[in-house]
Predict the structure.
Amino acid sequence: MKHKGFAALSAVLIIAAVVMAVTTTVTLLAIGEGQAALTVELGGGDGYLVDGCAEDVLQEIHDDAAYNQTTISLPEGTCGVSYSLPGPVNWDLTVSETGTAFGRKVRVVFTRGQTITLSSWQEI
């Protein structure tokens, strides 16, 4: 009879350990999925901010060929602007979001004449 009690207790302990392992694994996976979804959501907002800043820079350059500011402030956040080729006709600039850890960047290459002609708009 002692062996039956030992076997039953061992079976209960093994089943409890397996259930705890499965529960822990499922919980950790759920937390990881939640963090990934939050990262995608917050990073997407940064993408909209960077695109908006880049569009503002294009408008400013369209209006003034001597435009050379290095920061753009919008209600949603702040962007930095760096110029690899600063015009007045050919432009190559990088616009980056500076407020969060996601740090989205866009490189915009264009020419300025009577109108703005985009050569490239790439997220980097």
